[in-house]
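User: Predict the structure for this protein chain, please.
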Amino acid sequence: MTVKLTNRLLAVLVALALLVLGVLVVVEIAWVLLLGGSTEVLLPYTGITDYLAGLAWDSRPARAILIGMVIIGGLLLLTELRRSRPGLLTLASSGGSVTVGADRRSVEKAVAASATDVEGVSAAVARVSSRKISVSAVAGPRDASGLREALTSRMQSWLEGLNLANPPALSVRVDERKSR
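Assistant: Here is the predicted structure, written as C-alpha cells:
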C-alpha cells in the first residue's frame, strides 16, 4: 500500500471517529440541557471521568495510557515524515524563473514502453524515484546475449533526451524467458 493511500485511509477513519464522537456529544448535551436529563444517554462519561479523576499521575494505568498516546503519536509522525516517492520529476530548464516537471507515473510508463522497443525485449516494467530508475525487462524467446548492454544504452540515451534536472541512477535487469 502506498503512503498516500495509507494517509487517506487513516484520515477517513479518524474523521469518521471524530464525527461519531461529535454527534454523541451533541446528543448528550441536548439531553441534559434541552430535555432535563440527569444521566448519560449513550456515552458513559461520568464513569470515565470518575475513573480518571481517581488516578494518580504515577499510577500504572495512567502511565500505560500516556505511553500508548506517545506511541500512537510517534507512529503518526513517522508515517508523515517518511519520504515518499516524488509526484513530479523536475526537468532542466533554460529560464531561471520557470520550473517544469514530468509526472513520475508517466515517466515510468514511457520508460517501460521505450524498453520494449529494444529488439529482444518482450515486456518491461519500470520503477522511478528521485534517486533511481529501475528497469526490469523480460527477454524474448531468442538469444538474449548482449541484450542488457543494448537495453542499458537505449535507456541511458532516452533519459538524457528527457533532460532531467537531477538525473537518477539507472538500473537495468533482464530476465531470460526459458523456452517451453
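The first strand starts at residue 88 and ends at 91.
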